[in-house]
Structures are given as structure tokens and as C-alpha cells.
Design brief:
six-stranded mixed sheet; 36 strands
């Protein structure tokens, strides 16, 4: 028994199992290390792929921003610009390998404003004097625009009268100075502020601008207290003469064959005119067999005036356009105009019907509805008066007059057109206006006016010339000097473009605007832009979601770009990692 136990103790049975266990343990350790190494390698590979995707996306976004910069779609001046690329539904970048991780990008562009890097400053004017404006294509760009250039002499002046002078719904600008003297010039939106005081209210979107001499000193006597609620501002550049459609209607009658048809009814002598060319002012001043008329009616159409230096003196009453007995009204989308269609400029027996026109205003704030207003209707035509040479006209100092232009969907209804160059149409022509020193045309080299197209330079203290222009006054080479006494208010309601403009208001000063556009119009916009030579493009990438990428933190790409003329040169292109 003892020998048997000894043999068992000396036996190596079970050692094999121990070796097997050791081998299994070693193998498991090795396999574990190998598996861990493989997982680490896979993670590293995925990370590298992700980094590569970010780099590719950042490069693509940088190239996209550079392309936008080159073609002008991305403006990168003072204040910088930004560009978001991609959406959740349409990612900017979709990696081929990592298809589950589409990317979007955000870029910013910031100019290098260091003076040594260079910059260019330009002044641009957008808009047009005719055909551009607000939500209506036929509003002029300015309520009042004076073309005389680059001078501290006033392009627009309101002589000493201690009044508040109202202009509504449009901008005011002068290529020279605007001198308010001791008046307050109230430029505002209609319906804003206090009805009796147009120095209150809102001038939002409007402007008063003066170039003066070399872009400064044009707001006289100051920029603020004399101009309310819209302050006056320096205008860096001058405004080019806006274009307007030139008259095209043919001349079918001239002088004697265009003489008026006259008729006296109820003690009033009426004279009816038809469109034509007038080179003899006596046919206007004494139209009825050498005698004057009390009421002159210019039936619808285009009238050409080139009659020399003798002023056309308007009679007690003058009407241009389709006569009406009241205002146009609109109901259910239908406009009704009470036009007096029974009068015929070729039939003297019908002229008594002109007594049925709506009464001219006798005091401030009263409506003016004696002819078909192009701001209220488009059915009935009006007139266009074309002036050339030294032709001028003077409203009656104790009378009333109203001109209505013809509605045009694409342009202001021009009521008065001053020829700045020869107007040639079928049947004749009108010479350029010559109302400056010489007499000759008003130009930059010959800027001083010697005559006023609307000749109301003086009036007696008891004078009360009331005239109303329901149409655009386009006479960029004509000075206009008005001296008004005891005015009822509004004179122009479609804007004025002239060489120079002077309005002297004495006597009672009505709260009604002297110039008013039918609806608000911002018209011309002049902006000064500084273009920098060197810019920084920065790019951030992110997983595509509905939200744009954040532009906080370190960007994935920073590129430094230099503009040389119309080309762009990449100075540096660096990634964050």
C-alpha cells in the first residue's frame, strides 16, 4: 500500500492539462491584444476618414466662397459677409466612404482693413429720375431735383420769409446747395406727424441731399434745425440728368391755323385750343380776334411753344386736359370720372359747357378737381406743354390754372417738358431752352439763369396766383423762380426736375405741401462703398442638420485672398488640423 501511493505521487498524470490551460491563457491574451489593436486601427482609420471629409468639405466650401467672391455674389466690404452652404435635405458635401455623415458648411468673409493693405472708395447712385420708384413704376425719383452743379450758389433756395415749407412723399436733392435761409423745410411722408405742422412726422426712406462745392457745405444754414423731420445731408457725388420720354406727337397745326375757337357765354369769353406749334405768342395772349380771353382751355394733346422772349401771360382761368365736374371715384374696382365730354374745341357753341368744371379752390386744403387727374384715373387724357428757346409763361397774379398730364403706366405723366436739346417731331421742331446768360442754354460752364420758365418772379402784396400742375415738370435746363403771395398750397403733385428752383412764400403760409408725390417714393439711393484689397475667408463644417453651421470657435479653413483688378489671388490656404 505504501509502495502504491508512492507510485501515484511520482506519476506526471494531470501535467498535460496544466500545459493546455497555460497555452489557452497565452492565446487569449494574444488574441485580445490583436483584437484591441485591430479596433484601435479601425477607429484611427475612421477618424482619419472623418478628418479627410472635413478637410475636403472645408476646401469645397472655401472654393465656393471664392467663386461667389469672384462673380460678385458675395460682397465682402466693411462689415463683412457670410454664406451658408447646404441644408438637412440637400447636404453641401456627402462623403463617398462615410455616407452616413453628410456635411454642411458656413463661411464668412472679413476684409483686412489695415490701411497698408489698400482700399478703394466708390460712390454709386441707384434709381432713375423717371420710371423707377417705390411700388409704382410711374413715380419720379425725386419730389424736387435741381441740376446746377458743384457750387455753393444755391440750386434750391427758399428766400427769407420765416415760413414752414412742406414737401411730401419724395426726396429733395441739389447738385449745388440747398439754402433754407430762416425757413424750415419740412420733408416727410404724407399722413405722418401733425397735420398743421409738416416739420413733424416721419421722413423714413426719404432724404434731403446737397452736393454743395465738392461734396460738402451744401446744407444751408445748417443740416438739422432748418430741415425737419428729414435732416439735410452732404451728397458725395452729383446726380446725372435723369432721362424722360421725349415728346413724339406730330405737329399738325402751326400758328394761324392753330388759332383758338372763341365764344362768350354769360359774360365769360372762352378760348379753346388744339394741339400744335406756337411760335407767335400773340396767338396765346390775344387769342380771340386780337382780344384776350377770360378762360383758355387746352384740349388734350401735346403743345409745342417756341415763341421767343415775350412772356405768355395766362388769363384769369386756364385749364389743360379733359375738363371734369368733380373728382374721380373708385368703387368695387371701377373708377368713375365725371368728365365733361360735351365740349368740343372745334365747336364754339359747346364752350359754355366749361362753366360746369369743378370750382377752383378759394382757400387752403380745398380739393383741385377741374381736370382728369392722372393719379386717380387712366381713362381720360391730359396735356403736355413743351417749351423751347426763350419761351416762358406767367400765371395770372389773381387767377387760377390747372394742368393735368396723361396717365402712363411706365412713366410719370409729363405736364411740362423743357427742351434741353432740340425736339424734332413730324411737322416741326422746338429749339433747346436758352434761359441762362447770353441768353443761352444753362450748362455747367454757363450756370446763371436770366429768366424763369414759370415767370412769377414778383407779385404785388395782394397777389394770389393759384396754379396747380397735376403732372411731372421735367425741365432740367430751366431755372424756376416763384414768388407766391397768400397761396392755397400745393402747386406740383408729380415732382419737379429743373436747373435751379426758388420758392419765396409770403403772406399766409398754408400747412398743405407745395410739392407732393401721389404716394411715397424713395427714388434715387446714393451709397458709398469701400472695397478692400485683401480679405479673409473662414470656413466651418458641421454634420448636416436643419440648422446652419455655427461660426464660433476655430474655423476648419482660413484663406487669405487678394483682389487685383478683376482677378483674385490666394495668398494663403490653411487648415486647423
Amino acid at each position: 500500500m505504501t509502495s502504491s501511493n508512492a507510485r501515484k505521487l511520482d506519476s506526471d498524470e494531470g501535467a498535460t492539462l496544466l500545459f493546455v490551460l497555460i497555452i489557452i491563457s497565452l492565446v487569449s491574451v494574444v488574441v485580445g491584444v490583436m483584437l484591441s489593436s485591430g479596433e484601435t486601427a479601425e477607429k484611427s482609420t475612421n477618424n482619419l476618414r472623418t478628418q479627410a471629409s472635413d478637410v475636403y468639405a472645408a476646401d469645397a466650401a472655401g472654393q465656393a466662397a471664392l467663386t461667389q467672391l469672384r462673380n460678385g455674389a458675395l460682397t465682402c466690404n466693411a462689415g463683412g459677409a457670410s454664406l451658408n452652404l447646404g441644408t438637412s435635405g440637400t447636404p453641401f458635401y456627402s462623403p463617398i466612404v462615410d455616407a452616413d455623415r453628410p456635411l454642411n458648411a458656413a463661411t464668412t468673409c472679413v476684409p483686412d482693413t489695415t490701411p497698408s493693405q489698400g482700399a478703394t472708395t466708390t460712390t454709386t447712385t441707384t434709381g432713375s429720375g423717371v420710371g423707377i420708384g417705390g411700388s409704382t413704376d410711374n413715380l419720379p425719383a425725386y419730389a424736387l431735383l435741381a441740376m446746377r452743379k458743384n457750387s455753393t450758389s444755391s440750386g434750391i433756395v427758399f428766400p427769407q420769409s420765416n415760413k414752414t415749407i412742406c414737401i411730401e412723399n419724395g426726396k429733395v436733392a441739389s447738385n449745388a446747395a440747398i439754402d433754407a435761409n430762416n425757413n424750415i423745410i419740412g420733408v416727410r411722408l404724407s399722413g405722418s406727424g401733425t397735420a398743421s405742422d409738416c416739420s413733424t412726422g416721419s421722413g423714413t426712406g426719404l432724404a434731403v441731399q446737397a452736393h454743395g462745392l465738392n461734396g460738402t457745405g451744401g446744407c444751408l444754414p445748417n443740416k438739422t434745425s432748418a430741415f425737419k423731420p428729414t435732416n439735410c445731408a452732404d451728397m458725395a457725388g452729383t446726380i446725372s440728368v435723369p432721362t424722360a420720354p421725349a415728346p413724339t406727337d406730330p405737329i399738325v397745326r402751326t400758328n394761324a391755323t392753330a388759332a383758338a375757337v372763341c365764344k362768350t357765354v354769360g359774360g365769360v369769353t372762352y378760348a379753346a385750343f388744339r394741339p400744335g406749334l406756337f411760335t407767335d405768342v400773340s396767338l396765346l395772349n390775344a387769342p380771340c380776334s386780337g382780344g384776350s380771353a377770360d378762360f383758355e382751355w387746352f384740349s388734350p394733346g401735346t403743345y409745342y411753344f417756341d415763341f421767343g422772349a415775350t412772356t405768355w401771360q395766362w388769363p384769369t382761368s386756364l385749364l389743360g386736359g379733359t375738363p371734369t365736374s368733380g373728382p374721380s371715384t373708385t368703387s368695387g374696382g371701377v373708377t368713375t370720372t365725371p368728365a365733361i365730354t360735351s365740349v368740343d374745341p372745334t365747336n364754339a357753341g359747346t364752350l359754355g359747357g366749361l362753366s360746369g368744371i369743378a370750382s377752383f379752390p378759394t382757400g387752403p386744403g380745398q380739393a383741385i378737381n377741374s381736370c382728369a387727374d392722372p393719379s386717380a384715373q387712366s381713362q381720360y387724357p391730359g396735356v403736355e406743354f413743351v417749351f423751347g428757346g426763350r419761351s416762358t409763361f406767367a400765371p395770372n397774379i389773381s387767377g387760377n390754372a390747372e394742368l393735368c398730364g396723361t396717365y402712363d403706366a411706365n412713366n410719370p405723366p409729363i405736364a411740362i417738358y423743357g427742351a434741353s436739346s432740340t425736339v424734332s417731331v413730324s411737322g416741326g421742331s422746338v429749339s433747346p431752352e436758352a434761359l441762362c446768360t447770353g441768353p443761352a442754354a444753362c450748362t455747367d460752364a454757363n450756370p446763371t439763369g436770366v429768366a424763369s420758365l414759370i415767370n412769377l418772379v414778383t407779385q404785388p402784396p395782394n397777389g394770389k396766383a393759384q396754379f396747380y400742375i397735376k403732372g411731372f415738370v421735367y425741365a432740367p435746363a430751366a431755372p424756376v423762380t416763384l414768388s407766391l403771395r397768400n397761396s392755397n398750397g400745393q402747386i406740383f403733385n408729380w415732382g419737379v426736375v429743373v436747373w435751379t428752383f426758388s420758392l419765396d412764400v409770403n403772406g399766409s403760409s398754408p400747412p398743405q405741401p407745395f410739392i407732393k408725390l401721389p404716394s411715397p417714393n424713395q427714388g434715387f439711393t446714393q451709397t458709398t462703398t469701400t472695397t478692400y484689397t485683401v480679405r479673409y475667408l473662414k470656413v466651418w463644417t458641421c454634420v448636416a442638420t436643419a440648422s446652419p453651421c455655427s461660426t464660433g470657435g476655430t474655423p476648419d479653413l482660413v484663406a487669405r485672398v487678394q483682389q487685383i483688378g478683376t482677378t483674385y489671388k490666394v495668398l494663403s490656404w490653411s487648415h486647423a488640423n
